[in-house]
Amino acid sequence: MPARTRYALAAAVVLALGAALLSQLPAGTFGRRAPPAVETPELAAQGKRVLTQQCWHCHREIPLAPRVAGWDAPRAYEALGRLPELNPAMPPFRGTDADRRALAAYLAALAAGRAP
Ligand code: HEC
């Protein structure tokens, strides 16, 4: 096989491996877009548990419904990424991306008056 063909084959293999590896990385890496957060009753119910664990010790006293008025799930998801910026009293959200999406669904449901 001529050297040029061998180089071309090697380059193709490297590219294919790179593409395969990239597809295994979490969405959001290198600017790849994660799907937008959505609100479903199941997610909202999960999100209520996340809220109980991470927010309730403060927000039992500080009602959240008026503070998330008008928020949809993508807006809530975005806000959860910068809680200390919204209010310096708040610690950063600690949890998996799935927890964050569930909590965003709960907050959107709360905003719309249909929280589980
Ligand atoms: C250490 C206590 C504490 C914890 C924990 C906490 N918060 Fe807060 N949060 C606050 C305080 C204080 C405010 C400001 C309340 C005010 O004066 O309006 C606030 C405000 C907010 C607001 C309104 C922000 C705005 O734009 O004005 C949202 C939304 C919120 N919290 C969501 C959450 C969520 C969701 C969690 C759990 C992941 C959480 N907080 C955990 C103390 C806390």
TrEMBL record:
Swiss-Prot/TrEMBL keywords: Heme, Iron, Metal-binding, Signal
Entry-linked InterPro entries: Cyt_c-like_dom, Cyt_c-like_dom_sf
Species the sequence originates in: Anaeromyxobacter dehalogenans (strain ATCC BAA-258 / DSM 21875 / 2CP-1)
Name of a matching Pfam family: Cytochrome_CBB3
Signal peptide start-end: 1-27
Organism taxonomic ancestry: Bacteria, Pseudomonadati, Myxococcota, Myxococcia, Myxococcales
Keyword Protein transport part of the UniProt annotation: no
Domain (Cytochrome c): residue spans on this chain: 44-107
Gene Ontology molecular function terms on file: electron transfer activity; heme binding; metal ion binding
Parts of the chain that traverse the membrane: none
Name of the protein: Cytochrome c domain-containing protein
